[in-house]
Amino acid sequence: GFSVVREFCGHGIGKVFHEEPQVMHFGEAGTGIELQEGMTFTIEPMINQGRPETKILGDGWTAITKDRKLSAQWEHTLLVTAD
Fold first, then answer.
1. Which of 8, 63, 72, 77 is paired with 51 by a 20 to 30 Å CA distance?
2. The pLDDT of residue 32
3. Contact at 8 Å (CB) between 48 and 5?
4. Cα distance between residue 5 and residue 7, in whole Å
5. In the prediction, which pLDDT does 44 show?
6. Are strands 19-23 and 71-73 parallel, antiparallel or unpaired?
7. Region 12-24: what's the mean pLDDT?
8. Which residues cross the membrane (predicted)?
9. What is the pLDDT of residues 26-83, one digit of tens each?
10. DSSP letter (8 states) at residue 46
């Protein structure tokens, strides 16, 4: 099956690049933060062919799954507007 990494999350963007809120890529419908007009945040899911557990390689940046299955990560920045 497929999985979503839980150790990493999206984040708010404002005066500081990484700020609150943390934006999780999993959860239950109807729970979590309520989006407000003017919020700017990222979503950065890492989707895996296998298990969700990860490890960071020696370069201190590259993340792989512990089972070494294929995975993909992407990032988008979103702005919540009235429309």
1. 77
2. 85
3. yes
4. 6
5. 94
6. unpaired
7. 89
8. none
9. 989 988 888 899 999 999 999 999 999 999 999 999 999 999 999 999 999 999 999 8
10. E
Let me know how long the chain is. Answer: 83
Cα gap 34→61, rounded to integer Å = 31
Burial class (CB in 10 A: 0-12, 13-18, 19+), 54: middle
What is each CA distance from 79 to 3, 35, 62, 70, in whole angstroms? 27, 10, 28, 30
- Break the chain into its structural domains and give their ranges: 3-79
> Whole-angstrom Cα distance, residue 45 to residue 9?
7
- The yes-or-no verdict on residue 13 having pLDDT over 90 is yes
6 vs 26: CA distance, rounded Å:
8
* Verdict on whether the full-model pTM lies above 0.85: no
Gap between the Cα atoms of 48 and 51, Å rounded: 7
